[in-house]
Amino acid sequence: MEVSFSSAFKRAFKKRIKGNIDLEAKFWQKLEQFTVDPFDPSLKTHKLSGKLQEFWSFSVDYDERVLFYFTEDGKAVFVDIGSHDEVY
């Protein structure tokens, strides 16, 4: 699966994840899993509802989430990353 990062995602990644070596390593590992199978059970990928109903989310670790959507041509665009409270 092809993945792209929105400018908002890049800002959030730099602010919330970059510099935290452990969390950053987990993110890159989960990204690799995501590109192979976006619905791998370990990612806990799920569709959101309510005001975020056009988005999906997967877990990086216990509290960190990646918010994304699928494009019509089957790509994924990452929109936000952060703790459960920051993303939702």
UniProtKB/TrEMBL annotation:
SUPFAM superfamilies: RelE-like (SSF143011). InterPro entries: RelE/ParE_toxin_dom_sf, Toxin_YafQ-like. It holds the Pfam family YafQ_toxin. This is Plasmid stabilization protein. It comes from Nostoc cycadae WK-1.
